[in-house]
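Students often ask why we bother encoding 3D structure as a string. The short answer is that it lets us treat folding as translation between two languages. Here is a chain of 196 residues written in the first language.
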Amino acid sequence: MLRSKVRSGRGFVPWISTPGETFGSEGLALNSRYATDARADDETETLFLSSARFRALVREQPQLALPALNQLMVERSALLDRLRELTTLSVEQRLVSTLVRMAANNTFTRPDGRIELCTSRYRLLCEMVGATRESVSLVLGRLTGQGLVERQGSTLIVARASQLAEQLENPLSDSEATLASFAESGVAAGGSATLS
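And here it is in the second language, the structure alphabet:
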């Protein structure tokens, strides 16, 4: 998992790197400066490629370097898409988009394909969405009302990716979302969708 520090201890998780993916490509540039910290949740083997070795790979084994460059560009494109989401989508749209991405990673899903959000995953979700716990709780409260999220004790069970994708195609308008927020704020303030 990659985490960028935002302010006062808060962080944003722009990317969860899975087996076969890369991270830290900014370190290949001249005068490089890393923008994120990386942390592995499980025992992981990483392969380190310095900028000098990367240049040697491009020069001496282009048949290996070209697929690596392609992968770097695909991952960069995904990061740019995340930046677009942060700057153009509402919290609800970002949350649903993030849940769809999480559903594609078997780490977060149950055998039936639904996402299981325990306390630590809930915190991670907030960091991936780039929103406060309160904002995420309000949206999850609305999704619970629509039958897309179900509470089982302190765990939230989220619908399959296909159902979430429909929500992404038909989000509430800003005025509907605002009215829903005010209508449900009493419910959300009571902690109905907040994990403790």
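Translate back mentally: The first helix runs from residue 51 to 60. Keep this in mind for the problem set.
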